[in-house]
Amino acid sequence: MSTTTDAITSVTTTVDGVQLTLAVDGGRALVDVLRQDLSLYSTHLGCRNGDCGACTVLVDGTPLKSCLVPVGRIGGRVVETLEGLEGDDGALHPVQEEFLDAGAFQCGFCLAGHVLCTVAALRRDPVPADLSAELDGNLCRCTGYQQIATAVHAAPSAHR
Length: 160
Fold this sequence. Notes:
By secondary structure, the chain is of the alpha+beta class. Helix content is 28%, strand content 19%.
């Protein structure tokens, strides 16, 4: 649900399981609101044009590049960041564990995109034929992708 007065928009949404009402400029990029207003720093800002995937979040379970999503369009929707995958006891999500075990990150800048796209795919199909297509549009400049591929291929058994 969103309402607008002048340039400020009141946006009611759920972020990482917490319902929030934000008074923001509805045209601001979701990534900026997550990082600057909500201190959710796993959502990185890379290219600001949707090419790198560092800003990926799940919106109603679908991976979206948050640098391209105006915050005014998330009213009534559910946003999930990498921080939101953490269990109530602080435990990592099984897919995050696989990335850790495989050493599938170095600087961590691309991690949100790779992990969240993998999680979304496994929620849709717990036994996918191939997860590699799910990662299109997520760039990594550190690992050479082999460790990421190892983690992604191990993720379906860990996710169950």
